[in-house]
Amino acid sequence: MDKTRLETVLTVTYLSELAVIRGLLEAEGIASYVPDEFTVTAQPFYADAIGGVKLQVHEDDRERALTIIRDAGFA
User: Fold this and answer.
1) What backbone torsions phi and psi does residue 56 show, to the nearest 5 degrees?
2) Averaged in consecutive runs of 10 residues, what is the pLDDT profile of the chain (75 residues)?
């Protein structure tokens, strides 16, 4: 089982949009990552320049994460 590969499961405009979603995933034991978190925190308007703020999970958790995101009404 390769847990090193990450997959993007959601892209949003604002970092604050991910707070609730990350909490839902964490509550289910799914680790999530936002590769450009510090960039967008320092310069929020860079989110558009980098193609949005991306939420990533391990590829093994992808389907569960997508189900949680859909069930919560975020996708």
Assistant:
1) -120, 150
2) 81 90 96 93 89 94 97 89
